[in-house]
Amino acid sequence: MSRPSALVLAAALALCAGIGLPGHARPDEIQPDRPEITESARLVPRGSFQLETGITFSKESRAGGRAEKVLGSEADLRIGLARNFELNIEGEPFLRVRGPEDDTGFGDVTLGLRYRFVEGDDEPWSPSVGVKPFVRLPIAGEPIGTGRAAFGFLFMASVPLPLDFELEVNAGAVAVGQSRSSEYRGQGIVSASVSRDLARWMFGFVEFFYSTRAQRDEREQFAVNVGLVYRVTPTLAVDAAVQTSLLGQGPDYLIRTGLSVRFGR
Q: φ and ψ at 17, to 5 degrees?
């Protein structure tokens, strides 16, 4: 078993071992999306600003060539416009790519709007359901980005489960601009995350993510991501996670760590 896979397995077993521990997070405590890939249908409160930031490091082997290593940063500003509307501004303020091609610069910026049309509560099987249209602006060229825009639509559901578990599911479609071409290609995205409060101040998650090819010369990706989020205060959290590809194209491993803070209500 590879080292990234062993780390993922160990984290998953640690989450399962948490069954029976008290999970008493209050509804007003911060619940960041990061370091998960799956986005939540639980929105930030109206009038609040939630900044989710972090550092990433990944390594991806390339057949017959140098492995690609990427050191980067992530930033997601979530703004509660109304009870059921949230504005998202996401970006990668810094990326350093080393591999077959080297580059340093800014990543693309994504604008999205979450609309929740079903609001659940903390009772088991009471889901929150929403949708998120988004557009990715082509700030970065190759090898950081493609230099082309992308447009997408995401379905989101967050479902409390018995024993203090929660299931979050995303399914969506993206029209991805192709590099070195004026064409667009359809991409499908599906992800699911199971999380649990391991204590009143910490929760862990195990997540699976699948996407079809984004570019004509790429392959699909199937990956697993596991991590922990620690609430330092009701409005401040720190996190860490490790992701590895199981099938298709993707990083051998991707490490995320960062913090999230909420301002306002």
A: -65, -15
